[in-house]
Amino acid sequence: MLPLLHLKIASFNNTMGKCRKSLIGFPILLHTLCLLLFPQPLLSQENSFVRQPAGQRIITPHERTHSDPQQVHVSLVGKDKMRVSWISEDKKGKSVVEYGRNAGEYSEKAIGESGSYQYFFYSSGKIHNVVIGPLEPGTTYFYRCGGLGPEYSFKTPPPTLPIEFVIVGDLGQTEWTASTLKHVDSSEYDVLLLPGDLSYADTQQPLWDSFGRLVEPYASKRPWMVTEGNHEIESFPIVYPQGFKAYNARWPMPFRESGSTSNLYYSFEVASTHVIMLGSYIDFHPHSQQYSWLQSDIATIDRVRTPWVIALLHAPWYNTNEAHQGEGESMRQAMEHLLYHANVDLVFAGHVHAYERFTRIYDNQADSCGPIYITIGDGGNREGLALKFKNPASPLSLYREASFGHGRLRIVNDTHAYWSWHRNNDNDADVADGAWIESLSNSKACTKAPDQQNSSKEEL
Ligand SMILES: *[C@@H]1O[C@H](CO)[C@@H](O)[C@H](O)[C@H]1NC(C)=O
Ligand SMILES: *[C@@H]1O[C@H](CO)[C@@H](O)[C@H](O)[C@H]1NC(C)=O
Ligand SMILES: [Fe+2]
Fold first, then answer.
1. Ligand nearest to the CA of 447
2. Domain range spanning residue 288?
3. Which of 73, 274, 314, 324 does the annotation list as catalytic?
4. How many domains does the chain fold into?
5. Gyration radius from the chain CA atoms
6. Is residue 324 flagged as an active site residue?
């Protein structure tokens, strides 16, 4: 944890100096002071490149009663369970979920737990988490939270392929976010994967609540599986040195089920796919807990059970945009060989507010046994787009564009998947970029024993 702390203190000093890099550790008072001293838009100048105007922030008000559940979202837990998470302003709200297969008829009931957190002068509402199940796959369930309020419904993922993942990073809560979510919702999918940067609350805690209300219509209908980005850190020297207070309280993921000891990295399996969620902002070096967890998680992968293996993380390991150059490099150097030897099919990242698809790569070279790298940090946050790509284009980069949008990975069968990128400006039927992908589990040439692999390197 020490290196992380240094990082934060450095950024704190920087904050005091220039009001820049304010994404890390930034309480309200300082924020206000900074605004008075430097009345330029905060958080928009991580680098000197020029960005297309961002959408206006949308504040989603609380329009229900004090005791009604709000900010409802669901996530997968183990093979056949779902966690239902919500917040009630009323501290007497009960942590109970009633559910069943018919609207208005709740044959089942489960009790969970609740908590809350404090961040400087802000106290959260009562945060409820209830795990329900066992549930049937591919089935619609109707449910109600806390014994009152509106009815919700979700569909559980299919038991076998095909399955469709939506992948979108750096979501935020702007007009562009709303447009992205509308596109996401306009065609069927099973599970949403988010490689970090959710609310862009940046320590202003009520914005976490607003974000929860904005995404509720979507995140209460399909499981949302997330990992953390830099905007989730919200650490502050001495008071909140560990960071991730709001994120861990509001977006608990099933980390224990995969042997992880931290909500900041975990894995899960759904319909023939092993999904590895990594943490870019927690120690990843070879002596770290995350590193040894990843080693043991990889050892559990059975390519007969899950012919597909994908990984998500926030700061991209490969990136030809001028924004955030090199920020994922030390993690790449620490962990790339583990994913490579595990024959991971695809690695998704966010952080850079643009879309970019690479060829299969290992150690900066095209390698037909390496993962395909995709940056999908174009969800719609208030910082706007990262418009400048480096030139000349690297031959490793196959498609790059700074537009808001989302991606879809439709895994058709054990060997084939179709990846598509959907730009917000188009109607959802138009696919701006798309490619068929073959699973590496199907490739005899790529069957590698750990640390004695025989890669088929091609120079480009
Ligand atoms: C898997 O899907 C691909 C693409 O649709 C198809 O070409 C291939 O024949 C399928 N494989 C099997 C075993 O069905
Ligand atoms: C790698 O491939 C070469 C040639 O195909 C072969 O001679 C060698 O034994 C292989 N090495 C390993 C470790 O499999
Ligand atoms: Fe980020």
1. 2
2. 1-460
3. 324
4. 1
5. 21
6. yes
